[in-house]
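User: Last request for today: this protein with S-adenosyl-L-homocysteine, please.
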Amino acid sequence: MITFVGAGPGAEDLITVRGQRLLQSADIVIYAGSLVNPGLLSLCRKECEIYNSAKMTLEEVMEVMERGEREKKEIVRLHTGDPCLYGAIREQMDELDRCGISYEVCPGVSSFCGAAAALEAEYTLPGISQSVVITRMAGRTPVPEKESIRSFAAHQSTMVIFLSTGMLRQLSEELIRGGYPEDTPAAIVYKATWPEEKVLRCTVADLAETAEAENVTKTALIVVGRVLDGEYERSKLYDPSFTTEFRKASADPEKRELSAHAEERKLSDRRNLQSR
Ligand code: SAH
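Assistant: Here's the final one, the structure of the complex with S-adenosyl-L-homocysteine:
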């Protein structure tokens, strides 16, 4: 049996409980050595065979999987973050299907969640943005023209950009040409959740300078959008005047008024913070 496991964004204790158990009982682990924290491998039994896929081709990975399956071994294919994003798992699954080998997927915490935690950000703020675009600049892997950064930028929603730290000048240009004002808040999150994590806050216009000043050239996410700063509306979910599936609206006018006051206070606190 083969299980594709999300290793989480970096910190060793950010793998899921299920992922941890799978690593503890695995006979063979093939891990994406370029980004998976090698500390996670200390969970493995000492008899476990360990392969670093950063040095392997798809064919070599398949050879290990097929041999392991013949020997009835438990195999973990360990990918960084969650395997559903830029994980190249589909091609492995297709090969396994061809060989009649069954597999499962155990999800992980993606780095875009690790970055939100580092930023203490909510990507979906009422009245600001209710959508998150996860994308990348074209590199050696092309991006379809209809998914250009410029076209997504026209929505001015929250954007999380993977695999693009080496192209920040071009990225800024595309974001601004597409529609984000130059002073739109942005952040570069380097190695989110690792001990060496760096959170660099800037604007869409000065992404490249900010990264250069801190020598960040890879393993970073770029987060863009007004959710990183500025005013927003309170959620309906926790609003006393709003009925939800689990809670009736408060009929008490005093409580409603209190909630309106709380909202005003929050907005004025934010204004004060910004003008500092
Ligand atoms: N499946 C992974 C993404 C793999 S693509 C996930 O869900 O996170 C590799 C890219 O992810 C890197 O180039 C970088 O842009 C981003 N990345 C992965 N781990 C990161 C981390 N801890 N901090 C910041 N960016 C990270």
